[in-house]
Amino acid sequence: xxxxxxxxxxxxxxxxxxxxxxxxxxxxxxxxxxxxxxxxxxxxxxxxxxxxxxxxxxxxxxxxxxxxxxxxxxxxxxxxxxxxxxxxxxxxxxxxxxxxxxxxxxxxxxxxxxxxxxxxxxxxxxxxxxxxxxxxxxxxxxxxxxxxxxxxxxxxxxxxxxxxxxxxxxxxxxxxxxxxxxxxxxxxxxxxxxxxxxxxxxxxxxxxxxxxxxxxxxxxxxxxxxxxxxxxxxxxxxxxxxxxxxxxxxxxxxxxxxxxxxxxxxxxxxxxxxxxxxxxxxxxxxxxxxxxxxxxxxxxxxxxxxxxxxxxxxxxxxxxxxxxxxxxxxxxxxxxxxxxxxxxxxxxxxxxxxxxxxxxxxxxxxxxxxxxxxxxxxxxxxxxxxxxxxxxxxxxxxxxxxxxxxxxxxxxxxxxxxxxxxxxxxxxxxxxxxxxxxxxxxxxxxxxxxxxxxxxxxxxxxxxxxxxxxxxxxxxxxxxxxxxxxxxxxxxxxxxxxxxxxxxxxxxxxxxxxxxxxxxxxxxx
Amino acid sequence: xxxxxxxxxxxxxxxxxxxxxxxxxxxxxxxxxxxxxxxxxxxxxxxxxxxxxxxxxxxxxxxxxxxxxxxxxxxxxxxxxxxxxxxxxxxxxxxxxxxxxxxxxxxxxxxxxxxxxxxxxxxxxxxxxxxxxxxxxxxxxxxxxxxxxxxxxxxxxxxxxxxxxxxxxxxxxxxxxxxxxxxxxxxxxxxxxxxxxxxxxxxxxxxxxxxxxxxxxxxxxxxxxxxxxxxxxxxxxxxxxxxxxxxxxxxxxxxxxxxxxxxxxxxxxxxxxxxxxxxxxxxxxxxxxxxxxxxxxxxxxxxxxxxxxxxxxxxxxxxxxxxxxxxxxxxxxxxxxxxxxxxxxxxxxxxxxxxxxxxxxxxxxxxxxxxxxxxxxxxxxxxxxxxxxxxxxxxxxxxxxxxxxxxxxxxxxxxxxxxxxxxxxxxxxxxxxxxxxxxxxxxxxxxxxxxxxxxxxxxxxxxxxxxxxxxxxxxxxxxxxxxxxxxxxxxxxxxxxxxxxxxxxxxxxxxxxxxxxxxxxxxxx
Lengths: 525, 525
What we know:
The structure is a homodimer of 525-residue chains. With 525 residues, chain A is α+β, with helices and mostly antiparallel strands. Chain A contains 20 helices and 17 strands.
């Protein structure tokens, strides 16, 4: 199983077919002569080198042209735009990430559910605001109108309402679909996986909210992605700020989405957008600026609770008092040092009603903390107390809080790390290769491997009647199989199996009836 | 977390909304009076009973009408036709099945891959013959034309060709989509999960084919679904039989699909279809009948190898010699008693080129073996040496053999079993509930649970400031949590935690610094 061919489908290149990748390599080579002659001027050989380079260049251009023409004729197999295959090597990394996340969800007592990949279009209608244009619809082939799910939150709310569930703590790991402009090098795809955790049900304030932040903290720590920060805000505080600054209700959502850009734009630019595009008064924008550039902890909350403009606003007051409670709980959970109360955090989705949060990866550079903007937020979530009610005929509300982990961004980082470290990643768990040193031992190998399988031992053999011993041993080394069980004429006569430690190359004859026991002993951690 | 509301989304009913389910119950009750009065004639009370029944019936009809009208006004949340949600209880069963299957695949050294849920429509074109009409297309929203995958085999072949992989043993577990007429009580859905295992690459004859059958045998044994039988045939033998019986090449596929119905129809009916609908000569049909009703083992293979009509046919000869080899290997693997060489097995899909097989569940009734027709085959597969070449610009072939497990049918059976046994299935893995007997101990509970989580112990607490102790203990009993760690005034003063065994109700005070150790000791298997 050649490693290179599978390794080539790494993120960012996997959506191109093998054919188009080959062509672009040729193109790069063909364009080389244009700048090379200047670089390669070394003495009298200059002219010869230039000639060779030019000739090679022409040949490569011809080859590239021929290949392009050939490509037009035959269908080049590829994955759809913005989607990717995962090779065994990538899957090995992904499964490690998933298992870390699932273990944490289970540690917090979550159940798991699953929902269909498509929903009735009606179920998704009116839930995503502007982003609705990114929903994938299925073709009307008669029957219901269907769309691919856009996230896991709306299907979760639909599931709760449909089954009249008022109390559940569940996780759901599945793919979601957005007809977005993919930026695959940054882990942005049209098909991508989300890991969602949500707590639904009537609870006392901020207790489940605090647990969500604790879980995010545990997962990001366990994944060892480097330093991170969890930004926290509250939709109620945000609308209190806007109201206090004289922004009319009608412009609230627009102002919110502009504020959300503060991590990518300067305040000047944000202000210009507010005044120019969104039509806010310059004084209102200045007032807003004073607030949304604030970030801190308990001290900032206390300060804002004293602020006469804010404390008069009912929603803002509630939000601030809850934020204080949240910080107290986060202190008890011992994670408050990674939390930043950040008034610029707004989050795009419409359905949030209270606390909102977002986790970002950061880099410490000479006392400066820099957000890894390239990656963006890796976790996002908040409280959405109204969504389930939208699906209930009696509009019965079920309060919910939860978050979604953007696994593709995390996976991009893990994948780069794995490639940089050059550490060999095993893609199988095979423990023993059953091998033979001579010809005509297929039957003996088959009988032996069958015994191993039936005893629960992970075993392989080469699918050849008479494979060369060297080839069998190379297979162990290539794929990381630790043991080889070798059976030949002498072994069969003596009633033994030669057990070889692939790493040390040591071989010992083991009586056949003790083989299972010995293999298990050797494989003990 | 009320069990009933979640348990209600069982297969076969889950695609109906809670609302429509209630309505149909009402309708059933409302229609009862029409036949009930005849049944309930017992003495003088007859008239009174009839009156009551009629009145109740009218009331229920009115209620049903009102509900239907109400339903028209508001959107009733539901899943699309032929799809289903999986509740935590169902997921617990599914995950057990998946883990059995994955363990077996890993025991045989398989890697894992993943591919997108949709493919370019072009990728699926011309792969499924008549069944192509069942493919779900996505709406043309600009850009590429896309379709939901119909199986995992074609995407696998596309993946191999695209990445020039000539050698791999992989599994892939994912959902596939068919716009079929769903029969959900029998585990037939429009969205369903397949577990595929395939071996691609140049191998010596029948070695990987035999391993596939060994794996199917291991999985069906491990799942404890009852007795099963693996039917085996070869496309080459089948076409040899048809050729020998004078069926023209052009009618081969049609004759094949009729033969495939032999497990549901008598030979008479199959013959009538061959002659009537498919236009075969009656004598040809009779000849075919002599062959396709044959089933057996090595003796049958030997008999057919002696058959002059078959042995003259090159393909049939090859197929029979390979079948003999396969049976020799299956004998070495010790599974030949569950294998039946069955000449009626044809399988629908076009892409098979050699050995084909299908596993069915059977019931032993007074020495009669009866196939569980309701369930149908639970595994199907075979050799397809031409499929990868269809995606390669140079038509380079990669020989493949593999199978697909129909997990929904297996899950239907497991689900029924679980419901019948009334065995309590845990849907979480929580080990400890952190509880308090008095008010104002939220902070103490939070600090304690945080310690447990950080030590990797699965723990929950109720999301209330001051929950009643009884409510906390009931939660343990309802959800199967084995231990409760109770912290109150006295415990805090004494520096201990009261550890309660939920089953025995025994409580012991454990010094705080020994708590983790004691919990781990108690949880040891």
